[in-house]
Design brief:
- The chain has a single domain, classed as P-loop containing nucleotide triphosphate hydrolases (Rossmann fold), CATH 3.40.50.300.
- It is an alpha/beta fold and 201 residues long.
- It has 11 helices and 5 strands, in the order βαβααααβαβααβααα.
């Protein structure tokens, strides 16, 4: 089973990812870990902007190549990520995961979000900046993530139809949200979760 997590800035994607990892007994790969894996596989240098989730550099580069090369720029990183994790049970964050692994029968895609009024004070505290500055930074990060996703997939980031489950993590809190996700996956009949012994959820 592979669980892909897309997230708005401040929605607790990494926290929920780690909680799911503990509850399901499968590894969680943060974006930093995926980047390091790409370097070890020798594919990072060919597509650094994909693994650093940098939409602006991707867009600038695409404008400088031919239409044929443009398609390759978009397709090659997605294929590389798929091959890097094919057949592996894990949880990943970002990197257009819901699109990349959609064809896998054991893929479960999640989108985490929250009201800006809830995310702002949380991130202001984390970044040690004012709430006004935090709100502006959050908006910019979310804009970049949407551009990045659109560039590589042609799809709208966060659009409900492209995910199995979208949820506001500030309604239940991170721990309860993770528990809900595990129960949802088990009820959906995903292979890995359906084989979990009682009490693991």
């Amino acid at each position: 089973m592979i669980i892909t997590i897309a997230r708005e800035c401040g929605a607790g994607g990494e926290v929920v990812g780690h909680l799911l990892s503990e509850k399901l007994g499968i590894p969680f790969y943060s974006w930093e870990m995926l980047l390091e894996m790409a370097k070890k596989e020798g594919i990072y240098d060919d597509m650094p902007t994909f693994f650093t989730e940098d939409p602006m550099n991707s867009l600038v580069y695409a404008l400088s190549v031919t239409v044929h090369s443009d398609r390759k720029v978009k397709k090659q990183p997605l294929q590389a990520l798929y091959q890097m994790l094919q057949g592996e049970d894990c949880i990943i964050i970002g990197r257009c995961g819901n699109y990349v692994f959609r064809s896998r029968g054991d893929c479960f895609s999640i989108f985490l979000h929250g009201d800006l009024k809830d995310r702002t004070p949380s991130m202001a505290k984390k970044w040690q900046i004012s709430e006004r500055e935090a709100a502006e930074k959050i908006a910019k990060i979310d804009e970049y993530r949407a551009l990045y996703h659109k560039f590589y997939t042609g799809e709208e980031w966060g659009y409900g139809s492209f995910y199995d489950l979208a949820m506001n993590t500030y309604v239940l809190g991170y721990e309860k949200a993770a528990e809900y996700i595990v129960d949802f996956i088990k009820d959906a009949g995903i292979k890995k979760c359906s084989e979990l012994p009682e009490g693991r959820a």
